[in-house]
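task queued by scheduler; priority normal; single chain, no ligands, no partner chains; default sampling; output format set to structure tokens
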Amino acid sequence: MLKPGTLVMLVSQKGKTYFRVLKEEGNFNTNEGVLYFKDILCKNFGEEVLTHLGKKFYILCPTLYDLIKSVKRKTQIIYPKEIGYILLKLNIGPGAKIIEAGTGSGSLTTALAFLVGKEGKVFTYEQREEFSRLAQENLKRTDLESRVEFFIHDIANGFHQQNVDALFLDVRTPWDYLPQAYEALKPGASIGFLLPTTNQVSSLLSHLEKMSFFQIEVIEILLRRYKPIPERLRPVDQMVAHTGFLIFAKKIKKT
């Protein structure tokens, strides 16, 4: 059976989704009735539970994709289609120490915190306090906030950490902060960027070429879904096309 402290995803038959950390006592309201923690704790993942009105909810274990898509947002988020590639390129795994700037609503922060594990740490920088506060709320809701340190700080003044395993810059003019990023990274470590327009990418490339960065890559990821109907399999009417350019490089020692 499920235990108190477990994060669960509860999905109604209409697709309405709720994320909750289970407690020994208490309940919460849904638009289809009240769900009681004691009823959920008697179940396992994959089973169903009924509200006081008899409405059915399925108890599911949230995936990283579910957590990212559920963040409350005041800013444009980084989409899962980019996040998956970012995590691979930056070699994010258990025990990693990584810097992120800016935090935004915390979608990438959530993914980084999920993968670095209890032994790793995410250091995330944001200039606007309201965005940082929202991201902290999102991380607390998914029970990942202990893996993240939040900073309200102008990165033009440098980062507080050094010798980190990776760094990701999601800021409008990342070329202005390349010296600070270089000093924070360990030799051979990867750096990543997200930019929406080609002229910004060109500016960044010009600056990367003047510094000690190697293996520069620029990519764009497009996602096309299909309607899962066996008799009428076809693409959906709309697709998630351009949401940004990803740029990656590695730090090498200055000669």
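post-processing summary
- The CA atoms of residues 1 and 44 lie 5 Å apart.
- The radius of gyration is 21 Å.
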